[in-house]
Amino acid sequence: MTIKRSVDEVYAIAERDGFALLDIAIDEERLKRTLDDDGCGAFACFEGRVRNHNNATSVERLTYYGYEDLAINQGRAIIDEAKQRFEITNAIAIHRIGALDIGDVAVWVGVVSAHRYPAFDACRWILDTIKADIPVWKQEYYEDDSSKWLSNNG
Q1: CB of 82 within 8 A of CB of 91?
Q2: What residues are paired with 48 via a beta bridge?
Q3: Rounded to whole angstroms, how far apart are CA atoms 86 and 95?
Q4: Is the pLDDT assigned to residue 153 strictly greater than 70?
Q5: What is the DSSP code string of 54-79?
Q6: Residue 61 CB-half CA count within 13 A
Q7: For 79-128, how does the pLDDT look when each residue is reduced to its tens digit (9 = 90+)?
Q8: In the predicted model, what is the mean pLDDT of the chain?
Q9: How far apart are CA 36 and CA 15, in angstroms?
């Protein structure tokens, strides 16, 4: 699966709506710069990386698939709700789609706020809600060349 937009368009969507899907490596430094705000004393982020196992099964690689238009709309709603629930100034989240190797960043969430607790709490809530609500699925590939489809929170 590939995104039909340029990389700059994807990051513009993430800046505007707070969420995007991306089919190349996530530029964490670019996202941090986007969130930079002199009025914020706290920056919290989460980088979810592809691990080499799922429970007791060795994982070789995986592929994420997503429904882009719905994901962006739901992602925007998640970020908007986080801004209402928590005392945060801004938040951005990006989820990768396509083929990923062990160690690749699959999801990135960043939050800025005046104080640390809202940033930490919002970051976790955003991640958990993305995993539960965003239409992204993964296919894990194992050592024996078999594969298995999982929900994004599986």
Answers
A1: yes
A2: 107
A3: 22
A4: no
A5: ETTEEEEEEEEEE-HHHHHHHHHHHH
A6: 7
A7: 999 999 999 999 999 999 999 999 999 999 999 999 999 999 999 999 99
A8: 95
A9: 12
What distance in Å separates the CA atoms of residue 110 and residue 119, rounded to the nearest whole number? 9
* Predicted confidence band of residue 56 (pLDDT cuts 50, 70, 90): confident
Note the pLDDT of residue 4: 81
Residue type, 72: I
Radius of gyration over alpha carbons of the chain, in Å? 15
Q: pLDDT-based confidence at 154, cuts 50/70/90?
A: low
Its pTM stands at 0.94
| C-beta of residue 66 within 8 angstroms of C-beta of residue 22 | no
Residue 20 tokens, joined: 């995007």
Tokens of 29: 């430094």
